[in-house]
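Quick illustration, no need to memorize.
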Amino acid sequence: MRLIHIKPLDEGKRFLLELEDGAELRCGPREVMDLNLSPGMELDQEALEELRDACEAYSVRIKAAEQLSRRAMSAGELERKLREKGASPEHAEAAVRRMIDLGVIDEAVYAEMIVRRCGTKGYGRRRAEQELMRRRVPREYWSDALAALPAAEDKLDALIAARLKGTVPDAAQRKKLAAYLQRRGYSWEEIGSALRRWEAGPED
């Protein structure tokens, strides 16, 4: 198979490769240099497969960069999304590793961002942990991030005050309120203490 043309795109940031069978491939400058590509060169089957693989890896790296330009992600999250979009395990892993090397993925900063968002929404520690797990943040980053959560007592007191508006709940209301707070990530112990504080009223 002969490589007919190598056309630079976006001022040489990427290239369009045209093969004699009419197929078109896209790659970056690194692929052109690493494979020593030049117009008119003949590619045997092995070289052609190597070229296609390199172009596919490049395409996955571009998709990874596009995903991260939209929002921050953990390495696990990004790899899952790339796999869902059809990337092979090898290409997805390589693209994620490249993003880490470039500093685009920072697990510690991402974990702190998730926990801070949970705190702003009035969520408790368990809800924050669920979010970290859902976002596939490695557990070694959890502890430092969770330390930044506001005190549960302050958040619970504010949530209860907003729901009860100065009233003392009956048994049914108490049960419903406790279930609501539990869904927000607070433990039964934290909820029970907060309800007792509310029912006891302000100290003289």
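The chain has a mean pLDDT of 91.
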